[in-house]
Specification:
The protein is an alpha+beta fold and 140 residues long. 26% of the residues lie in helices and 29% in strands. The protein is built from 3 helices and 4 strands. It has a 4-stranded antiparallel sheet, covered by helices on one side. The structure holds the ligand Nc1nc2c(c(=O)[nH]1)N=C([C@H](O)[C@H](O)COP(=O)(O)OP(=O)(O)OP(=O)(O)O)CN2 and zinc ion.
């Protein structure tokens, strides 16, 4: 029997929305207050959903302890209390939560104990973003 499992992780981080493709004025117009040179912070929540067969011996899709260990090493140790703009993954892309969601998805593709379905990232109480990888064009 196949089942889905979701787990939430939390980390604070700062960022500044800024594009090297725009001049200073265009950056101010497009990103508004989020282009403030001093940056600002969020308490991000990342929800990861994986799926797989429920192992009859353990009753689990995968062990949460294994997912937590993977998240600690590959997500939290990298993103917790950092300025996102300083990370290699945002060297050439804007630190929006769309791009953060894609990076988080890419990271959890490396978790091999279950199949990655999607990631959901909450930036504020009002903003959340989802990424589920590339959609098979056959389904569009
Ligand atoms: N398409 C996107 N638009 C915006 C993003 C984003 O990631 N993708 N991010 C931001 C900000 O980083 C910003 O900090 C959010 O600002 P704002 O919308 O003002 O925040 P909220 O009103 O939801 O919450 P507050 O707690 O009042 O800041 C902007 N746009
Ligand atoms: Zn922000």
């Amino acid at each position: 029997m196949k089942a889905h499992l979701s787990r939430r992780y939390h980390f604070p981080a700062s960022h500044r929305l800024h594009s090297d493709a725009f001049d200073a004025e265009r950056n101010r117009v497009v990103f508004g207050k989020c282009n403030n040179p001093h940056g600002h912070g969020h308490n991000y929540t990342v929800q990861v959903t994986v799926s797989g067969e429920v192992d009859p011996a353990t009753g689990m899709v995968c062990n949460l302890a294994d997912l937590d260990a993977f998240a600690q090493t590959n997500l939290l140790d990298r993103f917790d209390h950092v300025n996102l703009n300083t990370l290699e993954c945002f060297r050439e892309s804007v630190s929006t939560t769309e791009n953060l969601s894609i990076e988080v998805y890419r990271i959890f593709c490396g978790f091999t104990a279950a199949h990655l379905e999607r990631v959901h990232v909450e930036e504020t109480n009002n903003n959340s973003f989802d990424y589920a990888g590339n959609v098979d064009p056959g389904f569009i």
